[in-house]
Specification:
With about 240 residues, the chain is an alpha/beta fold. Helix content is about 40%, strand content about 15%. The strands form two sheets. A seven-stranded mixed beta sheet has the order 3-2-1-4-7-5-8, with helices on both faces. β1, α1 and β2 form a beta-alpha-beta unit. It starts with 7 loop residues before the first strand and ends in a 7-residue tail after the last helix.
Length: about 240
């Protein structure tokens, strides 16, 4: 792959990720030397945003948007997507800052985007590849995928996966102002929006490892939001709503 046709941006939402931030960004920049990285920080009280500012002064490929308060994963990504689309990035990648997504997989996602409009790093494509999760959490995650596929017909094994690469044209076609989910349902909503518009989606296998530093952002409210969201998307599918909706 040559750098010329590509100008990728990796978006990383953060909230209290100070422990992970410096080694994570070092790994991302090394794994994908042609990429810039945007940190979308939700006013982390642990000083993640301040540390990011220090790192940015040393590395021109790093950027940050400081958000006023914690509003959830979905709002942080929408902010990052708008920032990316206002600039001339060719591909927009998204990933977690806690090393659950391996930065070494970034070139694979970008390469796969040569033949797909949206690429998902999948924990469940061709088998289960999740490390260090309790069985209850694994069953909930895998079961959520079955729930999404049955109700919406979305042909994706890992619809809640958050390791993705969008072509610019794909992301630009999604009406970001209508994305409602604030939590992890955001992953389902954006993938569904791309599929409804006829974009090609490809899943590539990844190994997902649970975080070793920091704390998970999952909550009962986030799970409930996703359940309701899927029911709404299922209604769109069953009523054959406008594919551009």
């Amino acid at each position: 792959m040559t750098a010329a046709p590509y100008r990728p941006l990796v978006i990383v939402p953060t909230y209290n990720e100070r422990e992970n931030l410096a080694p994570f960004l070092t790994a991302v920049l090394a794994a994908l030397p042609i990429a810039d990285v945007l940190i979308a920080d939700d006013a982390s009280p642990d000083g993640t945003g301040l540390l990011a500012e220090e790192l940015i002064r040393r590395e021109a490929r790093l950027h940050i948007v400081h958000r006023r308060r914690k509003e959830g994963l979905g709002r942080a990504y929408v902010c990052g997507f708008r920032w990316a689309l206002a600039r001339d990035y060719s591909h927009i990648l998204q990933m977690d800052a806690d090393f659950s997504h391996d930065p070494k997989d970034l070139p694979r996602l970008l390469a796969a985007a040569a033949q797909a409009d949206l690429v998902i790093g999948s924990r469940y494509k061709g088998g289960v590849r999740v490390l260090n999760w309790p069985l209850r959490r694994l069953f909930l995650s895998y079961g959520a995928g079955i729930y999404v596929r049955l109700l919406t017909r979305l042909p994706v094994m890992d619809p809640t996966g958050g390791f993705k690469c969008f072509r610019r044209e794909t992301l630009a076609a999604i009406p970001l102002e209508r994305i409602a989910a604030q939590g992890y349902g955001f992953q389902i909503e954006t993938t569904y929006a791309a599929w409804r518009r006829g974009f090609t989606i490809r899943e590539i296998p990844i190994v997902f490892a649970d975080r070793t530093a920091g704390t998970s952002k999952m909550s009962l409210a986030i799970a409930q939001e996703a359940i309701v969201l899927v029911l709404k998307l299922a209604l769109k599918t069953l009523t054959r709503a406008d594919r551009r909706a």
